[in-house]
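As a warm-up, study this chain.
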Amino acid sequence: MRLFLLLIVLSLVAGLVVYLKPEYRNRFQDLSSDIGLSRIAPKKTARLFKWRDAKGDWQITDRLPPDGITYEMLEYREDVNVLPRPPRLQQNR
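Now compare it with the structure written out below.
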């Protein structure tokens, strides 16, 4: 019984450390993706539609535009950086 309680306490302490320390959390996430846990909880993908309205302004929505309007479908994954690399960092490559 003592061993069981000790395991529970150690699990809680380890979980608290991973929760409070972002660097440990990132390592745990990397480790879990390496061993295949990412298949259990797949990354989220947002599907958006980009189109121009009657005034010519760009609209980006999560719903289809009205009928007869040409649109472009965009997909954004939560595990991919959608921002371009800053120019000064590209020079150091």
